[in-house]
Amino acid sequence: RFVASFDEPHYFVVVHRIADQASSAISQRLDALGQASFKSLKLVSTNLIFDDQYAMTFVGDLPTQKEAIDYLREFDSRVAGERPFSTLNFHNFVITKDNFNIFYRNKALDEYLSFFDRYYKK
Questions:
Q1: CA-to-CA separations, 57 to 4, 11, 62, 63, 75, in angstroms, rounded
Q2: Is residue 91 within 8 Å of 20, Cβ to Cβ?
Q3: Cis before residue 61, ω within 30 degrees of 0?
């Protein structure tokens, strides 16, 4: 269902439970990461409802797959263990714009996580 074509802008996505009411804290922390480590990219975070249980916060536009992976690594090493993330159960990944549209339309979280593991975590 997802397209293994990576030469396009990417998003960094955090999917989290709506009940945790963490969207604004997550967005603030991701904006701070963007300012600290990726200032020239002028990244902006956005919050969306994913389904009845989950919300997502995503950061765009990461111009290339390499920059998306760099952002993911920076998040994992510097931010994932801090608040609010240290108290949440969440999924995070990078995704192309085209695959994001498929992901969001079909609400295919588990399927995309498998795709992400196969193509990005080599």
A1: 23, 10, 14, 18, 13
A2: no
A3: yes
pLDDT in tens, 80-106: 999 999 999 999 999 999 999 999 999
Are 72 and 30 in contact by the 8 Å Cβ rule? The answer is no
pLDDT band at 121 (very low <50, low <70, confident <90, very high): confident
Among the listed residues 14, 10, 11, 49, the one whose alpha carbon sits nearest the alpha carbon of residue 28: 14
Q: Report which secondary-structure segment, H or E, holds 55.
A: strand 54-62
Element holding 100 (H helix, E strand): helix 97-106
Q: Which of 97, 98, 95, 87 is nearest to 112 (CA)?
A: 95
User: What single DSSP character describes residue 96?
Assistant: E
